[in-house]
Amino acid sequence: MESWVVSNVVVALIVVGVAGLAWFGLRDRMWSQALGELWCRRRYSVLVIAFYVAVALLDSISWVGGMEAQSDTVARYKAQSILDRLFADTRERSYSAPFADREFYGGAALQRPGSHVLGTDIIGRDVFYLSLKGARVALLIGGLTSLIAIPLALLFGVSAGYFGGRTDDLVFFVMSTLASMPGLLLLIALIMVMGKSTLAVCLALAVTSWVGFCRVSRGETLKLRELEYVCAARALGVSELRIIFRHVLPNLMHLVIITGVLMFSGLVLSEVVLSWLGIGVDGSWGQMIDQARNELSREPIIWWNISAAGSALFGVILAVNFVGDAVRDILDPQTLRQGE
Amino acid sequence: MLEVAGLTTSFPGESGEAARIPVVDGSDLEIAGGEVLALVGESGCGKSMTALSIMRLVPKPGRIVSGSVRLEGRDLLEFSVSAMRQVRGGEISMIFQEPMTSLNPVTRVGDQVVEAIRLHEPVSRSAALERCLELFVQVGIPDPQARLRAFPHELSGGLKQRVMIAMALSTRPSILIADEPTTALDVTIQAQIIRLLRDLQRELGMSILLITHDLAIVNEMADRVAVMYAGRIVESGSRLDVLARPRHPYTQGLLRSMPALAPPDERLPEIPGVVPPPGQWPDGCRFATRCSIQVEECRRCVPEMVAVADGHLAGCHLVETGQEPGGEA
Amino acid sequence: MLAYVIRRLAYGVVVVFGVLLFLFLLFFMMTNPDDVARKALGERVPPEVIEQWKVNHGYDKPLFPSSSNLTDNMLFEHYRRMLTFDFGRSDADDTLIMTRIREGMGPSLALTVPLFILSLGVAIPFALLVAFFRETYIDRTGVVLSVLAMSVSILLYIIGAQYLIGKLLRWFPISGFDFDPQLVVRFLALPLLVGVMSGIGGNVRFYRTVFLEESNRDYVRTARAKGCGEARLMSHHVFRNSLIPLLTQVVLAIPFLFTGSLLLESFFGIPGLGAITVDAINGNDFSTLRTMVYIGSLLFIIGQILTDLSYGLVDPRVRLE
Ligand SMILES: Nc1ncnc2c1ncn2[C@@H]1O[C@H](COP(=O)(O)OP(=O)(O)O)[C@@H](O)[C@H]1O
Ligand SMILES: [Mg+2]
Prior knowledge:
The structure holds three protein chains of three kinds.
Chain A: H1 3-27, H2 29-41, H3 43-58, E1 62-63, H4 73-77, E2 80-81, H5 82-86, H6 127-163, H7 165-180, H8 183-194, H9 198-225, H10 228-235, H11 240-248, H12 253-276, H13 285-295, H14 304-331
Antiparallel strand pairs in A: 1-2
Chain B: E1 2-13, E2 16-31, E3 36-40, H1 47-54, E4 63-71, E5 74-75, H2 81-87, E6 92-95, H3 99-102, H4 109-120, H5 125-138, H6 144-147, H7 157-169, E7 175-179, H8 187-204, E8 207-212, H9 215-221, E9 224-229, E10 232-238, H10 239-244, H11 249-256, H12 296-300, E11 306-309, E12 312-314, H13 317-320
Parallel strand pairs in B: 3-8, 3-9, 6-7, 7-8
Antiparallel strand pairs in B: 1-2, 1-4, 4-5, 9-10, 10-12, 11-12
Helix pairs in contact in B: 4-5, 4-7, 5-7, 7-8
Chain C: H1 2-29, H2 33-41, H3 47-56, H4 74-83, H5 97-132, H6 137-150, H7 154-168, H8 181-215, H9 218-225, H10 230-253, H11 256-259, H12 262-267, H13 273-282, H14 286-314
Helix pairs in contact in C: 1-4, 1-14, 2-3, 5-6, 5-8, 5-13, 6-8, 7-8, 8-10, 9-10, 10-14, 13-14
The complex binds adenosine-5'-diphosphate (ADP) and magnesium ion.
Adenosine-5'-diphosphate binds at residues 11, 23, 41, 43-49, 59, 62, 277-278 of chain B.
């Protein structure tokens, strides 16, 4: 199957999944109250995140065709996202494309902001366009990695905490082994061995970041296991799996949410360092920063590249950090405090 | 000696600063020198907050909003922060409900008492240690010399509470506030601690504000009793007056639900319902939602405290008009 | 106590074996030595040269021991070499890895030790201050500033500092290193500044949480009730109790002083272990990379044992059994 079809299906699944979760969440009093409080406390951060998500979605839905009027012949046969299409009309423009009506430079390199809202980069691409495209990559890094790391951590953490004994010993051993390797080096080694690709980066990030949450979920499961109603359920002969799904996992959900949000900024910031080492994800802000780094030494200085990528990165990290703080305060004032 | 008048302490409500909710609402208390005043009431009715307000130790974001706390005529609420520090642990000491967590876990208990002494008196460490040893003997800590160097986790709950008492008495305060000093202890230890407090009070002649919800302790120790309900004092008077001739329906209910004071072989009657939390208090008499003998007026206006006998006050509309059951009319 | 130390050490050894197994999996089973050789020697070399290279670097043996051959295989060699610190030669340029580590340790420590002390020295007083003024505007501003500081990528800190302070203001050299103590201060100024800045947000926030958690405890109320002032409360009661959770972080950080900092060393031209590691990454030098991971883990495991033992010293409640 074409990769753009897969991508569209994945995006659709994620949108449906998130919508479904939101619907269930709003029906449950505890979750809807938490959401309401989050909105009260961190309105602007939530809006900023929503903007990034919207941009990423625009850049995720893509199809082939409909570009026949373009001078760029390659574009006709490649899948183009909505965002690509918004920026595609290069014949006439005096500003970055959705605002454009005339074209002056024809893709000239390193133009100052002006004709292009945020200037152009070393090969004449519109920096505004590239900065927007980075949103999808960042969310992909954060999202995909969390989707790998959190279920992994839950699987191991819950089974270790719930079953104890040998399972616990083994999981604990694997956790201490992984945790004792320097995170960044392990990350780099994994990517070098697996080869450079988006999936490899996300997998490597997941391997290096699941341990923290695994430890937390193991500890919480140990506590939940001893609760009276769980003991009662066991005494009544309810099956172990049923207890885990009915009584343990639902009580870990708030930790999952908090961890997901708190993990995000760390992951995206790690990718920046990976980009600098040349093993990042294509099209990320990290790569933009890394490329723009060299242009700082020119005279006169080329500052717009790096400021655009840096601000886009800073904006989303800041918003997520603020939201993460609030989410932790609202959902769980105690457990994760020390786990920073 | 200590006069509390119209004390009101509040916390910000759900909607923030604008709607502060009082947890103590216009309480009046009076303790004479050498007297034990028991403050009784169900959990959550604001006893601890009253005590902390007297010490000006209300946890943030709570705040004392009005009233006065006069110690020998001087209003503590107008003291500077540093003058107040001298009062705390100097003239007024306090011991708490949770001996398990009330001592600093990483400091030896002897040093903690020494710190209390040296915060108020310019004595050398060794002199303070010596005083500490005497205090440990006085509060009945076995093997006091060795216990000076113990850490809190090495002591039992009862011993920890004795250390707390030693620390509180180290500067010979004129008033000791004891906030449920025995609630967290085993029953046998409870009796020992109460006996210790009573003996020390007689020996040192200090006043005690004893907070408790155990009427047996009140009966054993108190000279006078104040009954608190939902942030207000509803009845006060001498121990005999309040325990034997209670006038407020809440006090009567409390007494009836005490096993030691109720007739044997009977199911203990209890007051129906629970104390409404701060912010959900009714407009008129606070107790109206749970009272069995209320009249229409109770729901409308707040009853005044009226003298029903010499030094015996009760805040109930039915007392005012002399209709309440159990009254002497 | 002794029994505890022995048990703890034994578990440490088990984890070291686990790390080595993981490294074997990653660097010997999942990587093809022919690829490594070609990357080191170039694409167009004759097969004999590649074979010879593999022999020289120990990639020519069978992976696993068999009944007839217990010692002459890569698994055994891997464990033997790592456990005896006989790291062999770099895959990229044939220098002895141990020599390079010895050379790099000095510059790394010259950067990381002052950085560690400065970071603590700035973050802890700042966090105490913020916690002291809890629930006021000072506190709120402090928290917001911390979040702002930790939302900036370290790469941007480095680039910004090099450009602003190094290039525009010309206060300090942009990069370089020297063993002369007078020069080294000037060379280290920028990396130290960047290191402190990039860590301060997260550190202040973490320490503040710890301090606040402690200052809500009952014994703090007791101390207030006996007339203790707020400043003394912070320094004598809250801080001493906070040492226990802080210790984990601080003692654990010490071993990593030896491995240096990848970004700072590489950007500021400090020839330490971090820079060596970055060279190894860029040059596909797997043997150096896995040695660095191993040394890092070893130091971490030692640090963890030290942390556990130091709990017993700081916290009277902990009995090491
Ligand atoms: N930190 C706080 N924030 C908000 N409300 C509080 C706080 N502490 C106590 N309260 C409220 O004050 C009321 C009185 O509490 P307290 O004085 O401890 O009761 P008591 O000691 O009589 O059991 C309680 O109902 C409680 O809800
Ligand atoms: Mg109380």
